[in-house]
Amino acid sequence: MNGSILFSEKLKRVGVEHGFTTRALGDVLGSLNLWEKETNLKGSSLVWLNQVHGIDVFVVDQPASICSSDHELRYDAAITNRTDVVLSVRTADCTPILLFSDEPRAVAVVHAGWRGTLAGIVTHAVSALVETYNCTPKDLTAAIGPCIQPCCYEVGEEVSKPFSDRFGSEAISIVGASKYAHLATANRIWLIECGLSAEKIETLDYCTCCRKELFFSYRREGALAGRQLAYISLTDRSPIA
Ligand SMILES: [Zn+2]
After folding, report:
1. Per-residue pLDDT for 1 more than 60?
2. Closest to 93 measured CA to CA, from 224, 219, 187
3. Does 123 map to a domain?
4. 151-195, pLDDT tens digit by residue?
5. What CATH number corresponds to the domain at position 17?
6. 35 contacts 43 by C-beta, under 8 angstroms
7. CA of 208 to the centre of ligand 1 (A)
8. What domain count does the chain have?
9. Which domain covers residue 46, as residue numbers?
10. How far apart are the C-alpha atoms of 227 and 42, rounded to whole Å?
């Protein structure tokens, strides 16, 4: 970590440009110049999605300047094999997930809150990589980024019931009368079911809600909370040192 951006060890090892910004960088929308300085990437190459907690995957087959002129991009995931774009999602408790395929080269980004997690948005992204670029799930490397963890993510019956029905006891902790959901674990379960190999999936084990010095949190700060940026790109550059 260089102070304002967290990296996945596994994605670093395969040499793909990526990161998860932290509070030190500020809210993504207000600090793109800082992000550009830290990453040496261009803000104009970022593809922004209007995240709607759905299951649709955007195939980025044009430069970001063209994609971003469409303000109706209602997607929670994107894939690309272009080297001139940076895929991104913004989160403040929801789970950001980055996927990388080395051969053929392609990347994906996913935004998964509890609705998207239940609906399997991450499996839709994996399927899109397979169908569009002929990627092989077992060869994918995945990083599940910082999100709200069970320590802070108490949920009602409308979440706990479908979570335990779908993912089993691993995805819900019960403490007395309270139930806590495991977003990262649930998404990891989907990835394994999709055919990814366990050793290629990394979970960055931070809670966005209780690590307030590091992250913005919707649950802690409400709707006006800033947002972290998760990004990944096939840009032709040397691996992160
Ligand atoms: Zn916590």
Report:
1. no
2. 219
3. yes
4. 999 999 999 999 999 999 999 999 999 999 999 999 999 999 999
5. 3.60.140.10
6. yes
7. 7
8. 1
9. 5-147+191-233
10. 19
